[in-house]
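User: Could you walk me through two proteins back to back? I'd like the raw sequence and the structure tokens for each, with a short line separating them so I can tell where one ends and the next begins.

Assistant: Of course. Protein one, sequence then structure:
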Amino acid sequence: MTFDKLGLRPALLARLAEQNLTTPTPIQTRAIPEALTGRDIMGLAQTGTGKTLAFGLPIADALLAQAAKCEPRSARALILAPTRELAKQITDNLQLIL
């Protein structure tokens, strides 16, 4: 399985290729197609298995689908994290693909 089989936009596939990410992890393989259809997902996996991209790639895909710019002082997506450290880790991971 490769990321291009999951239905992501070409711009995201290019960013993944730039990061040498070609093969999705099991949680990404199961979660991304479901999230791209608009379904809610809940996943459980060990640390380092790619959970951030499992939910981050569908969010990025949806944002790319919207041509409108975000209004000042507003948001188009919200990711909640229980600690600052986890929020920073999520930010760092998602900045690699955005």
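----
Protein two, same layout:
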Amino acid sequence: PHGLKEIIPAVGQPFDPHQHESLSHQPSADVPVEHVLNVVRPGYSLNGRLLRPASVVLSGGPAKGEKKH
């Protein structure tokens, strides 16, 4: 309504510091490093201005000892 947009990043999307807030990193063999692994809370923008960034968990890459397929 009236220019309000929900910001819900897709899993695997590159981290965007202008729209996302990183809460932590977790190991992942499937999602590239510094890409969205999990969305904790959606963000919102109003008429192009950020009201609240989306809270996300980022991939830290494969865990030590874990090989990427």
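Residues 43 and 54 are 4 Å apart (CA to CA).

Let me know if you want the two compared in more detail.
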